[in-house]
Specification:
Structural class: alpha/beta
Radius of gyration: 30 Å
Number of domains: 4
Strand order of the largest sheet: 15-16-14-17-18-13-19
Distance between the termini: 42 Å
Length: 702
């Protein structure tokens, strides 16, 4: 249906909202004062019993106390904790309440688990009046949705033919004018809607900035965007969905000091896991819960945390264990989960196996969410030294959920088997961006055979289409010309070093001219049915690129194009190498060739299985740490290498304390990471080793 007038569209949306669970009595054209009075009435009705308000209504002064708390909290991140904290304290100043006058009482304001029943109220506000700063006219919004009297979702509408960008630009304009302050600073989610397109996004607050990269379209389970407005209301703004959106699917990220809202694919994954746990038969020994295939960079850590939070909130399990496969990832995951946790919600770290066992035995609700490594948990077995059989009995009797945030190939080994054999009544889930399937199975195992069936899928193609992850823009740079490479391969196969050494020898001539003929041997190999026909690149030895001339050619190209590709230093860059020794060589060479660039290198200091001596690697690490201190300030040592790696990650991702650093102070840099080779294979896998690639980012994503 075409809506030629915005007013008609607005009434249609209101009608649909009412059909989807919102109250039929619409609050039309109210002032902020009238909405505060409405909130006071709801608070009174929900807290009127003798132990709290003693049948004495809230006074203007008591409501002012609440508003002052809102003003002090100020940002959506802190206000999310305020809303989901369930209660707010005031000092009673109503003289009619003789039992509590002058005393502090705690008022229930919202319960994210009390959905569509009990004391929850769902009100539609049509065209609320917004106050603006001096010299500006007051504004009227389109629709504000209130839960228990608190404005938590604001909707701006546009008629047919007007792009949705006009609606979200209006929201941005209102925010700039100071509209979303006072009571309206409680708004958590914005919705911009026209009949054929809708986007939703979290409120960035007065200190944040609106970023269109985080304006999302809601989609169905198969990740097909939902554009029709009626379907958006039915699926996203219905009750109970709107209630859970505010209570569970908005995330106050303390690390970024940013409010986040989940994308649809994260919602389907989190609820899929939570539903599996709800229906788990804990006497069953089938440990496989399922796996989530969500592409790298799509927010798997946040999704896994929300899955755990849903499980813990519903009391469907006594323990939820986040399992990581490396110490550095454990620290990173613990920090991430801690940042996502709500006020009063604790995430338990485990420094050693003894602490892990104590947390697993504990009956305290504070010990529900645990972060540990696969190495530590695999050591909690009946035959492990220092672990009591009675402790194991108590632990395995609990309802335990195990979530592996990154289900890499390293989880396909003996350690995971030990965990499965010990925690026989638990349920296991895995998140992966690169699932192991039948075509590339490892030791006859696939992701499905190790973790269970796929519960949800969000592929790289989905992420690129939705602009939730960066697309690839590969280009080839030849460090050797194709003609030179072809001739060197021809010489090598003919066992000659020059044309003169070939001519006159019939056998060498046949070999040499075969490889010099592009119709007989192509540059790139080809698959013909089950047979692979090699190309020139397949014959090029690794040594062809392990030399100074090649490295200089690679870096010359990077330096030449750096000002343009980095947009004058706006972007970071990641340069992936095939080994740690090669990373050190490139690092030293780039220091010489481009001393003006701020660079560093990151790799695992404890692993050296790619060639090169440990002493050479140790010398390289010391040099890198010395340079880092000179350029950036912080001082690290080999024993504190994990802290160095974390500092690099925080700088690259612009997270605290580097989250609001201006361009001239942020000390942008590129860095080398040989461990990222596997993550870059989608780019480099179709290219000869004679080509270089660059990945750049303003926020830490290749």
């Amino acid at each position: 249906m075409v809506y030629e007038e915005e007013k008609v569209f607005e009434e249609a949306v209101i009608k649909q909202l009412i059909e989807c669970g919102w109250e039929s009595k619409v609050l039309r054209y109210p002032t902020e004062e009238q909405l505060i009075k409405n909130w006071a009435d709801i608070l009174f009705n929900n807290n009127r019993h003798q132990d709290i308000l003693n049948e004495c209504p809230l006074t203007d002064g008591e409501m002012q106390q609440i508003l002052e708390q809102i003003t002090q909290l100020r940002t959506p991140v802190r206000l999310n904790d305020f809303i989901n904290g369930r209660s707010v304290s005031i000092k009673r100043d109503n003289p009619d309440d003789k039992a509590h006058f002058g005393k502090e009482v705690s008022l229930k304001i919202y319960d994210r688990k009390e959905i569509a029943y009990g004391e929850s109220r769902y009100q539609i506000v049509q065209q609320p009046q917004f106050k603006t700063g001096l010299r500006l006219n007051d504004r009227r919004g389109d629709l504000t949705l209130m839960i228990n009297g608190m404005p938590v979702i604001h909707v701006e509408l546009k008629k047919s033919g007007i792009p949705v960008s006009n609606a979200y630009h209006q929201i941005e304009k209102y925010a700039h004018e100071g509209v979303f302050t006072g009571l309206f600073s409680l708004v958590q989610v914005f919705v911009a809607m026209e009949p054929e397109e809708t986007v939703y996004f979290a409120n960035p607050g007065p200190d944040g900035t609106f970023n269109k990269a985080f304006y999302f379209h809601w989609a169905d389970f198969d990740n097909e965007p939902i554009n029709n407005w009626e379907e958006v209301v039915k699926r996203l703004l219905n009750i109970p969905m709107a209630h859970t959106l505010i209570g569970f699917y908005t995330i106050p990220d303390d690390k970024d000091d940013t409010l986040k809202v989940m994308r649809s694919y994260q919602y389907y994954a989190a609820t899929g896991i939570a539903d599996k746990v709800t229906n788990k038969d804990w006497s069953d020994t089938n440990i496989l819960g399922g796996h989530i295939w969500h592409t790298t960079g799509s927010g798997k850590t946040l999704t896994s945390f929300k899955s755990a939070q849903l499980i813990a909130s519903a009391h469907d399990a006594e323990k939820v264990i986040f399992l990581v496969d490396r110490k550095a990832l454990g620290k990173q995951s613990f920090d991430d989960y801690n940042a996502f946790a709500s006020v009063g919600e604790e995430i338990q770290d485990t420094a050693d196996t003894d602490i892990l066992v104590s947390k697993l035995k504990s009956d305290s609700p504070a010990d529900t969410l645990i972060v540990t490594s696969i190495q530590k948990l695999s050591g909690v077995t009946r035959d492990a030294e220092g672990v009591k059989a009675a402790d194991i009995d108590k632990i395995v009797a609990k309802r335990i959920v195990i979530i592996i945030d990154e289900a890499h190939r390293s989880t396909f080994g003996e350690m995971l088997s030990n965990i499965k054999n010990t925690f026989v009544h638990s349920i296991l889930f895995g998140f992966t961006g690169t699932p192991i399937q039948d075509v590339n199975k490892k030791k006859d195992n696939t992701t499905a055979s190790v973790f269970g069936d796929e519960l949800h899928r969000y592929t790289l193609a989905d992420g690129i289409r939705d602009k939730n992850v960066l697309g690839f823009d590969p280009y080839m740079v030849l460090t050797y010309s194709d003609d030179d490479l072809r001739q060197q391969v021809a010489f090598m196969k003919a066992k000659a070093s020059s044309v003169e050494g070939v001519i006159g020898n019939k056998k060498k001539e046949a070999i040499y001219f075969k490889f010099m003929d592009p119709t007989q041997v192509k540059m790139v190999g080809e698959q013909h049915g089950k047979k692979y026909i090699k190309g020139i690149e397949d014959y090029v030895p690794k040594s062809q690129y392990d030399n100074e001339a090649h490295r200089e050619a690679v870096l010359t190209d990077i330096i030449k194009h750096w000002p343009t590709l980095s947009r004058g230093g706006l972007f970071h860059a990641i340069f992936a190498t095939c080994s740690i020794p090669e990373a050190v060589k490139y690092y030293r060479l780039l220091k010489t060739m481009a001393p003006e660039l701020r660079i560093t290198a990151v790799f695992d200091p404890n692993i050296d299985n790619e060639g090169g001596g440990s002493l050479e690697k140790e010398d390289g690490i010391v040099e890198i740490l010395d340079d880092y201190e000179v350029v950036f300030g912080p001082s690290f040592t080999i024993p504190s290498y994990d802290e160095f790696r974390e500092d690099v990650q925080l700088r690259l991702a612009h997270k605290k304390p580097y989250n609001r650093v201006s361009k001239d102070k942020c000390q942008r840099r590129n860095f080398f990471d040989p461990k990222r080779r596997s993550e870059m294979t989608h780019i480099a896998g179709y290219m000869s080793a004679s080509h270089s690639t660059a990945g750049m980012s303003t926020g830490g994503t290749v």
